[in-house]
Design a protein that fits this description.
The protein is built from three helices and no strands. Helices cover 48% and strands 0% of the residues. The longest helix has 16 residues. 1% of the residues are buried. The termini are far apart. It is elongated.
């Protein structure tokens, strides 16, 4: 029983350390486009389209080398 209490205490401490309050004036910084996981989504979509078009013969994305001899 004592081990379970200690384990729950450690789990609670680990979960609480990741939480931090964000002040309203700090939310504007987090909402900026360069804070996103993909800061240039249109450019990434365009590159994926070009890559898919070039590798269409072998299936795009995971296969290396196409039927056209590129890559």
């Amino acid at each position: 029983m004592k081990i379970i209490k200690q384990a729950l205490f450690l789990v609670a401490c680990a979960n609480m350390s990741g939480c931090a309050p964000v002040a309203p004036w700090e939310r504007g910084n987090l909402a900026k486009p360069h804070m996103a996981l993909d800061p240039y989504p249109l450019q990434s979509a365009f590159r994926a389209h070009i890559y898919g078009s070039r590798e269409a013969a072998s299936g795009s994305g995971s296969a290396e080398g196409g039927g056209c001899g590129c890559y």
